[in-house]
Amino acid sequence: MAKKLLFLVIFLISCRSIPQDHSQILVSEVIDGDTVRLANGRLLRYIGIDTPETNLKKGGKFIYQPQPFAEEAKEYNRKLVEGKTVKIEFDLEKEDKYGRLLGYCFVDDIFVNAKLIEQGYAVLYTYPPNVKYADRFFDLQKQARDKKAGLWGSYQVIAPEAAGNLIGQIRTVQGKVLSTYQSAKCVFLNFGQDYKTDFTVVIFNNSLGAFRQQGIDPVSFYRDKTVSVSGRIREYNGPEIIVNTPYEIEIIQ
Questions:
Q1: Catalytic center residues
Q2: HEC sequence for 170-197
Q3: What is the CATH number of domain 21-151?
Q4: Segments of the chain scoring below 70 in pLDDT
Q5: Which residues pair with 180 in a beta bridge?
Q6: What is the pTM of this model?
Q7: What is the second-level CATH architecture of the domain 156-251?
Q8: What are phi and psi of 75, to 5 degrees?
Q9: In 10 A of CB 26, how many CB atoms?
Q10: Residue 217 is inside which H or E element, if any?
Q11: What is the pLDDT of residue 56?
Q12: Domain ranges in the chain?
């Protein structure tokens, strides 16, 4: 017990001495496609993107079980940043609820977040208020999709009915929004008749401002339209993808 307390004291003292300047800092380890460990011990989660997971949580523990294209994304990220000095640029929110730093990563003139999207190793995942480069990321993702770069060439677009078989994975779901509903907490875009079991796109209230800025009321705007949505499929009253900005919903003509 005494040894554990001594270790904790030493750790806390060392944390106080960690420099807060992230304009030139070494990346000591790449965790996955969108997360790295810095030389000061902090984890950095890249803003605006999401990559397939290499480790999945089961029974309270993380086990190595890479999703499709997860290793490719991690390796590309490793080649870009591991063992290199990088510059971290912050947005309005600098940390997430897990205590990770949130930032844009640069190696010399390479914008790492953007490069991962451009090469098809990541999908757009913006979360207000950190939307500084959302326009740029959206354009790069569209180009990557058109070229079928990276995961866009590996993943097939799926119908809403197939989403339930791919919980936890990043996929593109395309279908018609049959109905919409606004609750006290969020807006639902429903792709089936039963909202408790069928695929749904969810927009939480704290993200609605991003839609209003573009003159979009999601409740009326997306109803009866065929759309394409890319992101991580989650399970809650059936499969769903959480969307934070209009950039993540593409209307199919």
A1: 45, 53, 100
A2: EEEEEEECCEEEECCCEEEEECCCCCCC
A3: 2.40.50.90
A4: 1-20
A5: 189
A6: 0.84
A7: Beta Barrel (2.40)
A8: -65, -40
A9: 14
A10: none
A11: 74
A12: 21-151, 156-251
